[in-house]
Structures are given as C-alpha cells and as structure tokens.
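Supplementary Text 2. Reproducibility record for the structural model of the 72-residue chain.

All settings were left at their defaults, and a single model was retained for analysis rather than an ensemble. We include the record here because the model underlies the residue-level annotations in Supplementary Table 4.
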Amino acid sequence: MNQSGNQSGNQINVPEAKAALDNMKFEIARELGINFKQGYNGDLSSRENGYVGGYMVKRLIEQAEKQMAGKQ
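Retained model, structure tokens:
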C-alpha cells in the first residue's frame, strides 16, 4: 500500500479524468497508426503500447508547461 491507502498509485479517482485520458490514448494511437481498440489490447507489442504511453506523458507535460507559462 502507498501512503494514501490505495494499493495502486496509478488509480484514477475522477471519472472525467479517466474519460479524457482514454480519449487521448485513442487519439495518440490513431496518430501513430497503432490499432488500439476498446478492451483487451494484448495482441499489441510492448513497443506499441509503450509508444502510446510515452506520447501521452509527453503531451501531458506540454499541456502543463503551457498552463504554467500562462500563469506567469
């Protein structure tokens, strides 16, 4: 268990955030030409899944940087 009492640190507690991240995941997969689908994607390679996750992190960081720059 982590400090907050959850067993997983990757748990999303805001349903709207989960929907937004899912939308981003499918959008990025489409841009990369990866055939992501609802549900099980175990037929995809680790590399393909890693590309999607990596680009999601990159895009989230870019959005955070834009928000921070706008507040200064």
